[in-house]
């Protein structure tokens, strides 16, 4: 039986990861790895669907128990991928999508060499700023912080296996879809993890 694929997608806030992730979930049979975070929920976000919203104390307790595959501090808040659901999905042959930052992605790449990592790029920094402002979900201070962090995120690009520029959403999705199709046939998914 084929093992599940762990697909890690990263990219600066506003690069269009969210839209691409939704398509992978609805059209390509991926399940979403629901992260834990200490940030406040945004309008429309549901507990256990988009995130598990935790207090700083609850997050630290899970971390101390070794319950995370990876953790990172992003835009001043803690984020982490719960370990158990990931291992379970992979063992059962289900494909799982992780939308995480580059620090967390680095940990995952080190721990699970068979993961597939894709970096989503905006066509330009100017366009990124435009998109961040247009979605009107963050404060001005948050937008500035996200733009500043985007430059740092971009430097991590060479660590990823694939890069997709999201200029046109249809084209970007097609590219991601083809990457996924090819990777499902990677021999690594038919062999025990060699590590
Ligand atoms: P947002 O607060 O906009 O939902 O996410 C901010 C950033 O945190 C995004 O780049 C997202 O990919 C990242 N992120 C979300 N969940 C996790 C996680 O579990 N681990 C890590 N390392 N990053 C995460």
From TrEMBL:
GO cellular component term, pick one: cytosol
Known catalytic reactions: GMP + ATP = GDP + ADP
Enzyme class: transferase
ATP-binding is among the record's keywords: yes
Subcellular location: Cytoplasm
SUPFAM superfamilies assigned: P-loop containing nucleoside triphosphate hydrolases
PANTHER family: GUANYLATE KINASE, GUANYLATE KINASE-RELATED
The name this protein goes by in its record: Guanylate kinase
Source lineage: Bacteria, Bacillati, Bacillota, Clostridia, Candidatus Avichristensenella
